[in-house]
Amino acid sequence: MQCRHCGFVQNAAFDIGLVRYDDDYEDAQGHSAVFREFADRVCRELIDDYGLIGARALEIGCGNGDFLRRFCELSNGHGVGFDPALGSLAGVEGAVDLRADPYRAGSGAFDADVVICRHTLEHVKDLSGFLRMIREELEGCDPIVYFEVPDSGRIAAEGAFWDIYYEHCSYLDKIGFESVLRGCGFEPVRSRLDYQGQYLVVHARLGDSMPIPERTVVPDFTPLVAEIDRWAAWARHHAEKSSRIAIWAASSKAVAFLASLPGLEPVVAVDINPAKVGRHLPASGLAVVAPSELPHHDIDTIVVMNPIYLEEIRAEVAALGISPELVALGD
Hints:
Radius of gyration: 21 Å
Number of helices: 8
Largest sheet: 8 strands, mixed
Structural class: alpha/beta
Helix content: 25-40%
Strand order of the largest sheet: 4-5-3-2-6-7-10-9
Order of helices and strands: EHEHEEEEHEHEHEEHEHEEEHE
Distance between the termini: 27 Å
Number of strands: 15
């Protein structure tokens, strides 16, 4: 459903009880040099622009803790991270304290100089309630707050149906996100699109709650239908040719992409993350293999789930001595 007042989009039927999010959930992106360069750039920007050498960092939704570790390494500071999926990764290691718990009222502010919340808010149904809780916990501190979420404006404009899936129940574009933040007591000081326009980045300070204004134009998601139809026709064409197709990235994008195209039957999914190799994608059951196994599968076409990795993948495929066609989503 979409709010015609502010443009906020949410899965109204979302049930957190249907989501399994524990230490078996594998979402590490750091195996890619492209992603590592992005993460380093974000860390250095925060450190340089806000004088965060030796800073105390708090990360809400820290995943496996890789970003927080890197931030503390580059800043020579220390940090606390919260994420219920940490499992055995929880504990204190050097300057980083990782806690396998959700961030909730009473978790504390830890005198944070910087608060980091990356790719967490899209998983929260009561978004305003969650943001207000964070604002209350930070009362008395003056941190810079770094938010990063998928940009729903791009999803709408591109018809990127592969970026809509159950675990993401809330969708935000730039204008809508800034309005929600102001309504919950944060004042955006800088915002931009990053990662080839896929991520919406906002730097904010604590402020006073403001009314959320009505928008004259809200994102239009009707291009999703046309894009599904276009890819369905692509799948039928390749089925008629008996093409042998691989999906590159055993990711949420891949699961959503295949769920929307029942006529597409790839041979394998490929992933550079060793923790995913030997497993299978949900629903489709597609086996996940390492790139080194591709030459054994006689692949004609590789569908790349994220175009930002296209050149990185092209180089890896060339090094294997094979030459399948590469087709990227969103191109």
